[in-house]
């Protein structure tokens, strides 16, 4: 199993990088403006859907990292926690969203974690050369 350690290390680095990108993109005003154009009706819905997609990518990576230890549950928990941290950082940064919207955003993070973690678990099961 000596070759498994470097592979796990690379996967962990990819996971950290993915989650860091999600965190920093969520705190960037330019990204916010790009994903929330006022000329699109119901642009808030579009932004929430995009957040679910982004958190799904993070959930997929988290599902790979937690491959043998309840990957779906842990991906949901990890992405919900990341989403909650994002909400705290956004509040510190001056966001005026209500607590209801904060809770909804955390739910979107959990949904993304569920989708991504489920896809990771499903693809792992389908791979015959993997011990998931």
Short description:
α3 crosses α5 (99-126) and α4 (71-92) runs antiparallel to α5 (99-126). 77% of the residues lie in helices and 0% in strands. The mean pLDDT is 83.
- Work out the count of structural domains: 1
Give the termini separation. Answer: 15 Å
Tell me about the largest β-sheet. Answer: none
Gyration radius, to the nearest Å?
16 Å
Please provide the ordered H/E string of secondary-structure elements.
Answer: HHHHH
Number of strands: 0
Spans of 5+ residues with little confidence (pLDDT < 50)? none
Q: What is the tally of helical segments?
A: 5
Structural class: mainly alpha
Average pLDDT reading: 83
β-strand percent reads under 5%
**Portion of residues within helices:** over 70%
The general outline is: elongated
Description:
- The protein is mostly helical and 132 residues long.
- α3 (43-65) packs across α4 and α4 runs antiparallel to α5.
- It has one domain.
- The chain starts with a helix and ends in a 6-residue tail after the last helix.
- The model has no long low-confidence stretch (mean pLDDT 83).
- It has helices spanning 4-26, 29-34, 43-65, 71-92, 99-126.
- The longest helix has 28 residues, at 99-126.
